[in-house]
Write a structure and sequence with these properties.
The protein is mainly β. Among the domains are: about 30-175, Ferric Hydroxamate Uptake Protein, Chain A, domain 1 (Beta Complex); about 380-400 and about 415-540, no CATH class. Helices cover about 10% and strands about 45% of the residues. It has helices spanning about 5-25, 75-80, 85-90, 520-525; strands at about 70-75, 95, 105-110, 110-115, 125-130, 130-135, 145-155, 170-175, 185-190, 195-205, 210-220, 225, 230-235, 235-250, 255-265, 275-280, 285, 290, 310, 315-320, 325-330, 335, 345-360, 365-380, 390-410, 415-440, 450-470, 475-500, 535. The protein has a twelve-stranded antiparallel sheet. It has a five-stranded mixed sheet with strand order 1-7-8-5-6. It has a three-stranded antiparallel sheet with strand order 2-3-4. It starts with a helix and ends with a strand.
Length: about 550
């Protein structure tokens, strides 16, 4: 991203802030009329009114939404000890999470989703915080604190959260400031392996109609697993999050909300969950399936799962989580699937600034939103969970910055129909680099290891609309549409970065010195002629 583009984005952002202030003094105010009955004692004497719920958070009435929606309140989140997005989706019907890393859930709804493991990839199920789509699914776990509720929208979403999603969407709604009320809370938890969790929130009225809410979360845990190659422990947890809301209720018809959030995840790599090893001719394997995944293991593994090394000739099989106990053949020779468990490899840093202005009129609501956020990640991921799998390991680094403006009109009430129209303008600068090193023994013959570096700029202009008409209390007709224009430019470079010492022989893996630290990862992706790990030498073209 050039200095010119960076300054251009900041100037536009400041201009929008000034524009929002202009709105607060010049827009015509009107009273908001609502006939929604909130008194349970009168529910039997009044008919249920139509309520606008498109794109709204779980506090609103969702039972008339045209799509299937499941919600979870803040009380339920605390009572069920919900810790991350996987915990939420696995508590709801038709929703699945296929965890492939400690930071990505790969969520699917009604079996529709995606399993793209790239750190800058958008998933098939959109994830949003306060109705704003998250740039990269890895940032969702960094927002799991001080929540008002969560809503899961099933089915394709076109006009929701300013993004197209084929599988559905998940919206995390945070708690907003309370006017004229001081509130403070804290929660401390302790667990095994020296796990410590601290969360706190403070609601502070500043002046009349202005309030501030600050919340933080800090979770740490010691590592659980031993890496036989490096004689070090792995699987530590180190997550931190901070969020502040500043809200100004200018009048009964308009308000301004400014939100800043920061999150980081510096934990070390962890193995796959729920994997064991058994003899193929043993009592626990029948017709290619594991009989009991809790049975004692037949095969001796130095680690319980993906980061493992057999110290014997193996005719074992393994079972992957969420696979219906489907067995996978282990192979007939020693094998190694290894990665660097160092604490500074698996890093995610997420930062966001949002300004949201809302203006109510007699029949509709105007909502303007400006967002600047960034996600930085360094991550090593193994594609192979088999001795004779893909036999290479892509290590990735990503730096993505993004700004977005959205203008949306929501109808409040108009007989039997509700509608929403909006426009979204966004721009993102994205750097992505990958280094691939060999990990297996006895695999296919290959000698070169490629690397890819991508710098790109994306501009998107999008218009969307949604409409719903209620025929009666049982039937309704709904439709939504989105038109988007995307312009992408950038540079993609592929280089032969490294090769094994003897280039071609089968079964000649890089030794344990091939581990790539964060420093080497950055050097390799930015300078193809730079230093390589021991046992590897590289060049570029």
């Amino acid at each position: 991203m050039t200095i010119k583009n960076w300054l251009y984005g900041k100037v536009q952002f400041v201009f929008l802030v000034i524009t929002l202030g202009f709105y607060s003094n010049h827009l015509v105010h009107a009273n908001v009329a609502t006939n929604v009955n909130t008194d349970p004692s009168e529910a039997s004497s009044q008919a249920i009114e139509n309520v606008l719920i498109i794109g709204k958070h779980p506090n609103n009435n969702l039972f008339e939404y045209a799509s299937s929606v499941s919600t979870m309140s803040s009380e339920t989140i605390q009572a069920w000890n919900i810790q991350n997005a996987e915990d939420i989706v696995l508590s709801m019907a038709n929703v699945d999470a296929r965890t492939r890393s400690p930071m990505s859930a790969n969520i699917s709804i009604r079996s529709v989703g995606s399993e793209n493991w790239h750190i800058n990839a958008n998933q098939g199920v959109a994830q949003a915080v306060d109705d704003v789509s998250i740039q990269g699914a890895y940032a969702s776990k960094l927002s799991m604190f001080d929540l008002q509720g969560v809503a899961v929208y099933r089915g394709p979403q076109t006009a929701l959260f300013a993004i197209n999603s084929t599988g559905g969407a998940i919206n995390f709604e945070t708690i907003k400031p309370l006017m004229n009320e001081f509130e403070a809370s804290t929660n401390v938890r302790f667990g095994r392996y020296n796990r410590r969790e601290l969360s706190a929130a403070l609601n502070l009225p500043l002046v009349e109609d202005v309030a501030l809410r600050m919340a933080m979360s800090n979770t740490k845990r010691d590592p659980l697993w031993f890496n036989a190659f490096t004689n070090t422990m792995m699987g530590s947890v180190d997550q931190r999050g901070f969020r502040t809301h500043l809200q100004w209720d200018m009048s009964s018809q308009n308000s301004l909300l400014v939100t800043y959030q920061y999150g980081s995840d510096n934990g070390s790599r962890v193995p796959y969950l729920g994997i064991g090893y058994w003899q193929t001719d043993g009592e626990n394997v029948e017709d290619g399936r594991i009989v009991d995944i809790t049975a004692p293991l037949d095969c001796q593994a130095l680690l319980p799962s993906n980061s493992s090394s057999f110290n014997q000739k193996s005719n074992c099989v393994t079972v992957r989580p969420f696979s219906g106990n489907q067995a996978v053949a282990g192979g007939a020779s020693d094998w190694y699937t290894t990665y660097d468990p160092a604490d500074d490899v698996s890093n995610v840093r997420f930062e966001s600034l949002k300004i949201n202005y809302t203006q109510f009129f007699e029949r509709f609501e105007l909502n303007t939103l400006a967002v600047i956020d960034s996600v930085k990640s360094d991550y090593i991921e193994s594609l192979s969970n088999n001795p004779f799998g893909l036999a290479f390991m892509p290590s990735q680094t990503n730096d993505k910055s993004h700004w977005m403006y959205e203008f949306r009109l929501n109808s409040l009430k108009d007989s039997n129909s509700v509608w929403m129209v909006g426009v979204t303008i966004s721009n993102s600068q994205d750097y992505f680099g990958t280094v691939i090193t060999r990990t297996d023994s006895g695999g296919a013959r290959f000698g070169i290891v490629p690397a890819v570096s991508i710098d790109q700029d994306n501009q998107t202009y999008s218009g969307f609309a949604a409409y719903e008409y209620s025929l009666n209390q049982q039937w309704s007709i709904s439709a939504d549409i989105r038109y988007s224009k995307n312009k992408q430019s950038g540079l993609s470079t592929a280089n032969v970065l490294a090769k094994t010492d003897n280039a071609t022989p089968s079964g000649e893996p890089l030794d344990s010195g091939m581990y790539i630290t964060r420093t080497l990862l950055q050097a390799l992706t930015q300078n193809v002629s730079g230093p390589c790990p021991p046992g590897v030498f590289g060049w570029g073209f």
